Amino acid sequence: MKEFKLAIIGFGTVGRSLAKLIIKKSEYLRKKMDLKLKVVAIFECNGAFINENEGINLKQIVDIPPSDFTKIKDWKPDYLADDHLKSLGFDIMAELTKTNIKNAEPAYTYIKTALNNNIDVVTSNKGPLALYYPELMKIVKEKNRIFRFEACVGGVIPILGTYNNLLLANKVIAISGILNGTTNYILTKMTLEKIPFEIALKEAQEHGYAEADPSLDIYGIDAASKLVILANSILGYESSLNDVKCQGIDKITPEAIELAREDGYVIKHVATAISGKLEVAPKLIPEDHTLDINGTKNIIILETEEAGDIVISGRGAGGIEAASAVLSDILYICNIRKKEN
Amino acid sequence: MKEFKLAIIGFGTVGRSLAKLIIKKSEYLRKKMDLKLKVVAIFECNGAFINENEGINLKQIVDIPPSDFTKIKDWKPDYLADDHLKSLGFDIMAELTKTNIKNAEPAYTYIKTALNNNIDVVTSNKGPLALYYPELMKIVKEKNRIFRFEACVGGVIPILGTYNNLLLANKVIAISGILNGTTNYILTKMTLEKIPFEIALKEAQEHGYAEADPSLDIYGIDAASKLVILANSILGYESSLNDVKCQGIDKITPEAIELAREDGYVIKHVATAISGKLEVAPKLIPEDHTLDINGTKNIIILETEEAGDIVISGRGAGGIEAASAVLSDILYICNIRKKEN
């Protein structure tokens, strides 16, 4: 049985969901894939769980609050990724800290450090990819590393792998989609219940679909980050967040939605990448158009040269969906590295 | 640059489209993937193009009618796959003959022969997989071969690769979908234009969406074959075509469709695999349900344990779509084998 050592950075929703999923799937991994994932480090901002020999006992820690970390034998306070990431021995790093869209730190540094140390990387963090995609890919190439980030885009939709593995023979010309579940939920509410933006936003917050500070969602920054990642990895762009013409949904009124409806249209927050141009903006979409989906769902349309449109849709990301994408990426790496040895 | 030798069996619509695609993509393959596909053999039922050294000049033959094959230097009349498949040297076989749903021959024998000779195989032929899936997978495992068949299911939708590569961490519980573009076209016509089955079928034939003998489509055999392949490869079933409870669309009347519509339903020809049971039958689907798609489109819903439904849709297969899927499969194999050497 092949064993892979894993370091996790960030033990929030996604990190904990990943730990739970690893516990749940360990039997399956052993039996069906003949492999074991040993988590040797989990870094938080004030310390880390570390157990290089036996691996961390995940069951012991997945449900405890941060205030109880100190009760765990493997917890090392003040043991920080900044100081120890380089010296620790592991095969794969899962960077799961919160997206920082201003300068992508500290994730950007962690990912560079790992890649430069010949570690394969998976991430659910949009920041580094939305801001420094070309730089990161250069290191990936130089170091012959695998870097996967399915969890960053399109929620549960396995779009990057679909593209990477399956459309090898086909050229994608353009991408369009609804890449943010929160704004789609708000617009759906406004349309069906004829309520103003502020009230729909409030409901989204009450249901946990929108953050206390919803600005990344409603101004389109989150969708724009995903669009940059999709366009760079699928269309070969070398863009960053600043290249996206971005318009939020905060100015949409129930009256505008009603006027659109009278003409057979709905208003959707649509991301498009075509002919080198990137845009996230409210658009008039004909009712029953492929993009006319409701609720928190995400949808991506790949316009291909040889095969028309390929459409893929699924739930927007929550913790468990993101963790499932992260684990898929990890197992993809394991499969490749296993064959090499 | 790594060179892979390819043998193609069947030079009909898919075979010719594949040859055209290989010509079109050769520059891309060389530059971006550092590989060359050399087609050393193309078998037809009455002879073969053979050029083991330089490879067949595809440009010379892609558009000529069978009656002109004898004008080509590489054409060897009466050189048949049955006699020569074993002795010929090549890396990958593309089995693209017409599906024979009775006994899957001659494709079944060709594929077994190739696998047993340590050749990797791709196919667009549903017969062998719908009838002998477990047997073939046993040889694949014993011989450590790669066997891909994306073109067999769901038209342009890259469903198998999506599953194989990306949902590693996620369990699919059930599959449902519309797997045949012809019946969906006919039902769509019947619904929108309130015309009887026979007339809609005739229009489908006039538009080239239905064969002169449409029985495989309208009785659900084609959809059932695809369902078997999906269920076996994604849900781990070991089923064959006989296990599918199969009902055609030939008994559907405009009156039934109208009655359904009055209650807010449409009639769709739906394939389902759940709890070990396989079925293809006309079903009442609520209007605006995910499966309520029109025209020749295919759609597949994967119900997952961790991530809700993942939906993927695209055009039903034509020659170029199938060829695109076949080439993707071929390049997948090249990528894997390249890394091994």
Report on this model:
- 2 copies of one chain form a homodimer.
- The mean pLDDT of chain A is 92.
- Chain A folds into 2 domains: 2-154 and 320-340, NAD(P)-binding Rossmann-like Domain (Rossmann fold); 164-315, Dihydrodipicolinate Reductase, domain 2 (2-Layer Sandwich).
- Chain A starts with a strand and ends with a helix.
- With 341 residues, chain A is an alpha/beta fold.
- Chain A is 40% helix and 24% strand.
- The radius of gyration of chain A is 21 Å and the shape is globular.
- The longest helix of chain A has 22 residues, at 319-340.
- A 7-stranded mixed sheet of chain A has the order 4-3-2-1-5-6-7, sandwiched between helices.
- The first copy, chain A, is built from 12 helices and 13 strands.
- Chain A has helices at residues 13-33, 58-61, 81-84, 107-116, 126-143, 159-166, 181-193, 197-206, 215-218, 221-235, 254-262, 319-340; strands spanning 2-9, 35-44, 47-50, 75-77, 92-95, 120-123, 147-148, 172-178, 244-246, 265-274, 277-286, 297-304, 308-315.
- The interface between A and B is large, with 41 and 41 residues.
- Strand 13 of chain A pairs antiparallel with strand 13 (308-315) of chain B, so a sheet runs across the interface.
